[in-house]
Amino acid sequence: MSCREGFMSPQTETKASVGFKDGVKEYKLTYYTPEYQTKDTDILAAFRVTPQPGVPLEEAGAAVAAESSTGTWTTVWTDGLTSLDRYKGRCYRIERVVGEKDQYIAYVAYPLDLFEEGSVTNMFTSIIGNVFGFKALRALRLEDLRVPTAYIKTFQGPPHGIQVERDKLNKYGRPLLGCTIKPKLGLSAKNYGRAVYECLRGGLDFTKDDENVNSQPFMRWRDRFLFCAEALFKAQTETGEIKGHYLNATAGTCEEMMKRAVFARELGAPIVMHDYLTGGFTANTSLAHYCRDNGLLLHIHRAMHAVIDRQKNHGMHFRVLAKALRMSGGDHIHAGTVVGKLEGERDITLGFVDLLRDDFVEQDRSRGIYFTQDWVSLPGVLPVASGVCSFPESSQVAQLFLPILYIVPFVPFRVEMEA
Predict the structure, then answer these.
(1) Residue 301 known to be catalytic
(2) Ribulose bisphosphate carboxylase large subunit C-terminal domain: which residues (predicted)?
(3) Degrees to nearest 5, angle at CA 417 with 320 and 172
(4) Is the pLDDT score of 347 beyond 90?
(5) DSSP calls for 288-322
């Protein structure tokens, strides 16, 4: 007796096997549907596709839709046990990329039932999963996502948002200024706290742990938190202003990360920090929920983003990472400056800045926005203009990002400033 005969009822075997023929068939026969009318509840994706030589563009687009949803490399008998037409992704439009040889934008629609509510992790596991290693494609890049309001409503989003942060700080009508302590590695906790005090006492609103600072032998996290809290409260007392230091809670485990966030709250610190790409979306969402419940602001760093988003034909654009962060949760995130040492195009940068901050953003291909995005009631995220600016460059940033609430130049102390 075969395994199939032993474990299947006669009724099930009849339904699954009638008319079934195994083997490989072209993806476009099932997953390329140019006649499909997208639904308001669909997640829409725009992929930049570079097919291998000899692979038709319709087959390449359909392969992306299939491998990121219900498809696999062959036809299986269990396809007959569900409604693939209900659950499959669909490549519904393909357009050539102007000025690029053999590159196309493939638009894919995903039914909402494919994704767990409130989980960026699950959404990305499907949409940017194994399909990026598919042999039929020379390269693949996710340019943009349209997240439907029905899915947006399953996320908490930022712990507090722009207006609540302004209220907490009691600071309005001007940029918020901050800096990162340098050298980023090697200082003792006491000397680190001294630098924090000098910066806050000198007029800055915030200071920040560098993303590299976690809990190394030269400065354990608990000592750093204690000395930074002492510096923070001393500067507040002397200036009469509310101050903050981004205490980096990023750690090797979620449990350790939460322990650090709890200690920061017990010290009375107003804000903690997390590296959301190296730390992971599950950890980030958990921390964002804790921060809302306990009145902590959450600053987000984006270390590792250039590994994902810098290549123009493979990976994922930062605007997608920015949308994912707004869903997962964070009160501010580094967004580049256009000027300074880090890469960033003006219109494209301003495009994802609006996606972080505004409630409703219209489609605008000139700024790289492929879909209209409605954030409904999800709070906005403060875009942090970051990236080693000199003082002359800082004035350019201030003019360029005038609508933004946060600017970040660097000062002679070799520290980072936020607006």
Answers:
(1) yes
(2) 161-388
(3) 85
(4) no
(5) HHHHHHHT-EEEEE-TTHHHHHSSSSSEE-HHHHH
pLDDT tens track for 145-173: 999 999 999 999 999 999 999 999 999 88
Residue 8 has pLDDT above 50, yes or no: no
> What pLDDT does residue 125 have?
95
CA dihedral in degrees (326, 329, 331, 333; nearest 10)? -60
Maximum pairwise Cα distance, the chain? 84
Q: Which of 15, 168, 171, 182 is catalytic?
A: 182
Q: Name, in order, each residue with C-beta under 8 angstroms of 155's C-beta and a sequence gap of 6 or more.
A: 118, 120, 327, 328, 329, 378
Domains of the chain: 14-152 (3.30.70.150), 162-416 (3.20.20.110)
* Reported pTM: 0.87
Active site includes 332? no
Residues 116, 146: Cα–Cα separation, whole Å: 16
Which entry of 28, 88, 208, 301 is annotated as an active-site residue?
301
pLDDT tens for each residue of 138-147: 999 999 999 9
Measured from the Cβ of residue 24, the count of other Cβ atoms closer than 10 Å reads 8
